[in-house]
Amino acid sequence: MDVILLERIAKLGQMGETVKVRDGYARNYLLPTGRALRANAANKARFEAERAVLEARNLERKNEAQKVADVLEGKSFIAVRAAGETGQLYGSVAARDVVEILAAEGFNVGRNQVVLHTPIKTVGLHNVELHLHAEVEISIELNVARTKEEAERQAKGEDLTSADAIYGVDEDALRPEDFFNPDADYDLDEETEEAPEASEEAGEEEDK
């Protein structure tokens, strides 16, 4: 479907351009959200007549988005989720969860503004992109942990999925000789040493 863009759309075009998009994308997103018009003679004339108003409205939206961006840029938010010892979540953190977390902190961000290509499935510090406007893109940090206490430790740089965190073992302090010392005199199991003699005695009895 050919549409006339009413604002700049990333990777698609600038305001006023006529571009070809998939029908579903146009019907489900661009047209109902007022970001585009069907490309026909009537709408082209309408756009030209309203261009000044549309440009002013776009600038206003950009300024509003920038104000939010100035506050959100680089901020960290905690997401408490159940997870196993290795850090694998029992579930995942999706775009809708990010929207809810931000809403709880007083930030109104739409689900379509959260750029999360794949759901988050492990504890850790994750960067999440927010496209607040076609010309305003920022990144926030999502601190996914099992508890708020663990989130605080994680924020300080601690790896909650390391052997040290899980088992109390300092991975950096481990050496090969801690597991096997080639110079040590390892005794064989007593039963193993006696087994061949027992077998020989049994053989002698059979010969008699």
TrEMBL record:
Q: Where is this region: Disordered?
A: 152-208
| Statement: the UniProt record of this protein carries the keyword Coiled coil | yes
Q: Please verify whether the record's keywords include Glycoprotein.
A: no
Q: List, in alphabetical order, the GO biological process terms annotated in this UniProt record.
A: translation
What GO cellular component is one of the record's annotations? ribonucleoprotein complex
Q: Which Gene3D superfamilies match?
A: Ribosomal protein L9, C-terminal domain, Ribosomal protein L9, N-terminal domain
Coiled-coil regions listed in the entry: 42-69
| InterPro entries per UniProt | Ribosomal_bL9 (IPR000244), Ribosomal_bL9/RNase_H1_N (IPR009027), Ribosomal_bL9_bac/chp (IPR020594), Ribosomal_bL9_C (IPR020069), Ribosomal_bL9_C_sf (IPR036791), Ribosomal_bL9_N (IPR020070), Ribosomal_bL9_N_sf (IPR036935)
Keyword terms: Coiled coil, Ribonucleoprotein, Ribosomal protein, RNA-binding, rRNA-binding
Q: Could you tell me which Pfam families the record lists for this protein?
A: Ribosomal_L9_C, Ribosomal_L9_N
Question: What is the similarity comment for this entry?
Answer: Belongs to the bacterial ribosomal protein bL9 family.
Q: Supply the HAMAP family for this chain.
A: Ribosomal_bL9
Function recorded in the entry: Binds to the 23S rRNA.
Q: What is this protein called?
A: Large ribosomal subunit protein bL9
